[in-house]
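Fill in residues.
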């Protein structure tokens, strides 16, 4: 499982000229799954994601969590996080999880965030989405389950 997390002061997701998700302050998280991901891994990654302290405190140090800043989450499924250009110039997506299984884990991930009390907006799984955000810092973090656990 991979997460690309961006600190944002505003963000939105548009599908077919309609805004389907919008936040004012918090995280935009791109979420991707590979073949051996499961609910246990999703639980570990959600806990790690929610415990990150990447917002500045009154001294300018990245010491505050999403909860500390009353932040929101815009969650976007993105199978291209598992693209490979190892061979050739066109990306291969053979490492990305099959869509129906990935969607199940994506929805589970979002449900865990909601269960913890966060306001979560989402994109539309598998849709052509237009993501707009103002990245603060910019501050972008990549969480990869293979590196963390």
């Amino acid at each position: 499982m991979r997460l690309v997390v961006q600190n944002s002061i505003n963000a939105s997701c548009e599908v077919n000229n309609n805004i389907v998700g919008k936040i004012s302050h918090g995280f935009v998280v791109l979420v991707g799954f590979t073949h051996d991901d499961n609910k246990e891994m999703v639980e570990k990654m959600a806990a790690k994601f929610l415990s990150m302290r990447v917002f500045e405190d009154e001294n300018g140090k990245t010491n505050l969590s999403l909860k500390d800043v009353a932040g929101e989450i815009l969650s976007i499924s993105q199978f291209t996080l598992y693209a490979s250009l190892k061979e050739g110039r066109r990306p291969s997506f053979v490492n990305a999880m099959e869509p129906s299984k990935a969607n199940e884990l994506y929805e589970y991930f979002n449900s865990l965030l909601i269960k913890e009390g966060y306001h979560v907006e989402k994109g539309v799984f598998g849709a052509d989405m237009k993501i707009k955000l103002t990245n603060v810092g910019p501050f972008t973090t990549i969480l990869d389950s293979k590196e963390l656990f």
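The mean pLDDT is 97.
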